[in-house]
Design a protein that fits this description.
Keywords: DNA-binding. It contains nine helices and no strands. It has helices at residues 13-33, 40-47, 51-55, 61-81, 91-111, 113-126, 129-155, 164-180, 189-203.
Length: 211
């Protein structure tokens, strides 16, 4: 996706910070007013800068929309892949890493509620292609999970009746849900993570340690 022809006119940390501020302001305006009901003037007014500043980084409202979506996907992906799930030593470590990923997604929603709300709910209604991109982010995670579980079957830690593709898809879907739930209520990370991990354990027939 395009990030604007003028993105290279300024350099250094301040330039990157200003661009981030514009993306954040755009996300807030898009959520508050609706993408179709606002323009560049609303975005720059929210940040208190001039039109020229905006056009130093982006060519249009659609251009900054792409940047908002890219930023949201980048933050979500970072929370998913940061803890190398597929390198877990055993199933216990695998589930612990998964729990930490749920926690990190919850924390991201607390830190960037407008951005995540827009990326998950609003953007796909503007461009249906973004639905596939969003699902693809979580689908990549599911592929990693399924591959690790396949190793578990080969080692004899899991029985061969487990449908690994379905389990991987379910794990990705649960992560997506963990990014959505905090937007609609006061659930804490602990409220979300423990039941989700227990659900996954029971679904693939793994007993928690000490059970």
């Amino acid at each position: 996706m395009s990030h604007g022809a003028g993105g290279g006119r300024t350099a250094g940390g301040r330039s990157a910070e200003r661009r981030r501020e514009l993306i954040q302001a755009a996300a807030q305006v898009f959520v508050a007013q609706g993408y179709a009901n606002c323009g560049v003037a609303d975005i720059v007014a929210a940040l208190g800068v001039g039109h020229g500043t905006f056009y130093n980084y982006f060519t249009s409202k659609r251009d900054v929309l792409d940047a908002v979506v890219d930023r949201g996907f980048e933050l979500i992906r970072d929370r998913i892949v940061e803890d190398a799930l597929g390198r877990s030593a055993d199933l216990e470590e695998f589930f612990e890493r998964y729990r930490r990923i749920v926690d990190r997604l919850h924390e991201l929603v607390r830190q960037e509620p407008e951005l995540i709300r827009f990326v998950v709910f609003e953007a796909p209604s503007i461009d249906p292609v973004l639905i596939d991109r969003l699902l693809g982010v979580f689908g990549q995670f599911g592929d990693v999970a399924a591959e690790f579980l396949a190793d578990g079957v080969r080692r004899g830690d899991l029985h061969g009746a487990v449908d690994l593709e379905v389990v991987g898809e379910a794990m990705g879907s649960i992560l997506l849900a963990s990014a959505v739930f905090p937007l609609h209520g006061p659930a804490t990370a602990e409220d979300l993570a423990a039941p989700l991990v227990d659900f996954l354990r029971s679904g693939i027939g793994v007993e928690p340690v000490g059970a």
